[in-house]
Amino acid sequence: MGETTMRHPKLYDRAARRKTVSITMNADLAARAAAAGINMSRTAEAAVAAALEALERARILADLREAAAFTAVLVAEHGPAFDDWTAELYRDAPAPGAAGPDDAA
Question: What are the residue ranges of helices labelled H in 12-91?
């Protein structure tokens, strides 16, 4: 349970004991939520988890953008890391802007 994988890292321990905390919110909103039967603890917990996931996603995207920019600089300065491999990989690819084999003239 709560298994960490490369694709879904463990952001927090979902099995951890629950802790009483105090939050401040709009009194009318709290009253209406209670009258509607909304479990405010679970709803707040889900909202905080979603916010944490969004922050982690933003951090990962920033890291990826930084890595991509760094890689682009290296390729611009030194060329592709594997010229022979790159040439073989793109040997049959149409030139940029050229019509591909599926494009009817």
Answer: 27-35, 40-78, 83-89
